[in-house]
Amino acid sequence: MFVYFPSCNFTRTFPNTSSAAKEFMQKQGVRIEGCCRPGHKNLTAGEQALVVCQTCTMLIGERRPDIPLKSAWEYLDGLEIAWPDYHGEEITIQDCWRARGNDSLHTAVRSLLKKMNFSVVELEKNRRNADFDGEWLYRPSAPANLKMAPQSFEAIQPYIQLKSPEEIQALMQAHAAQIKTDRIVDYCTACHTGLLHGGANAVNLMELLMGTNG
């Protein structure tokens, strides 16, 4: 059985979309969990966790290595669904630094965009070469995350470079400046927030799938 973790950060950032996604998943027979921190304890043998959040991926992956973990995008891409049609709109795709080794996620995201009739524009640094994670790489890791998944979070500490708010603003703006399409699609809340901070017209993939982005 599939178990969907809606992500606290995702739900706070996209409350309407998160509600729509949970309702959609339930109709597919997917069990809905809450926050991954206590929720990972409820997973049982034979279940498979579906995630939309890179932090959830790290926490569940370390705390429950006995449970198969899959991005929600891969699950959704495997469904026979008539997704919304965006009529050939050109859209840039933003890959997440923390997902840079997840080839199956990268493939599923692009497959879903093509199924929605988007013309996908790639950034120079994409997939395994992605170097963007919003402001996540420029702020200290949350102590609770370090405590709960020390192996995962300690492994990435060498990549974190603390920056001032002014430096972060400049970095986000410089990144957004390379986007040539009207919109850019992301699948990570941290990336989404950083793109908006830089002035980009960002939309999350789930908003497009659920039709909640106007």
Topology diagram in text:
Blueprint: E1 2-5, H1 8-13, H2 15-27, E2 31-32, H3 36-39, E3 48-51, H4 54-63, E4 69-71, H5 72-77, E5 90-93, H6 103-115, E6 119-122, H7 143-148, H8 150-155, H9 165-176, E7 183-186, H10 189-197, E8 202-204, H11 205-210
Describe the protein.
There is one protein chain. The chain is α/β, with parallel strands linked by helices and 214 residues long. 43% of the residues lie in helices and 13% in strands. The strands form two sheets. A four-stranded parallel beta sheet has the order 2-1-3-4, sandwiched between helices. The chain has a four-stranded parallel beta sheet with strand order 6-5-7-8, sandwiched between helices. Strand 3, helix 4 and strand 4 (69-71) form a beta-alpha-beta unit. The longest helix is centred in the N-terminal third of the chain and has 13 residues, at 15-27. The two termini are 32 Å apart.
Describe the structure concisely for a colleague:
By secondary structure, this protein is of the alpha/beta class. The protein has helices spanning 8-13, 15-27, 36-39, 54-63, 72-77, 103-115, 143-148, 150-155, 165-176, 189-197, 205-210; strands at 2-5, 31-32, 48-51, 69-71, 90-93, 119-122, 183-186, 202-204.
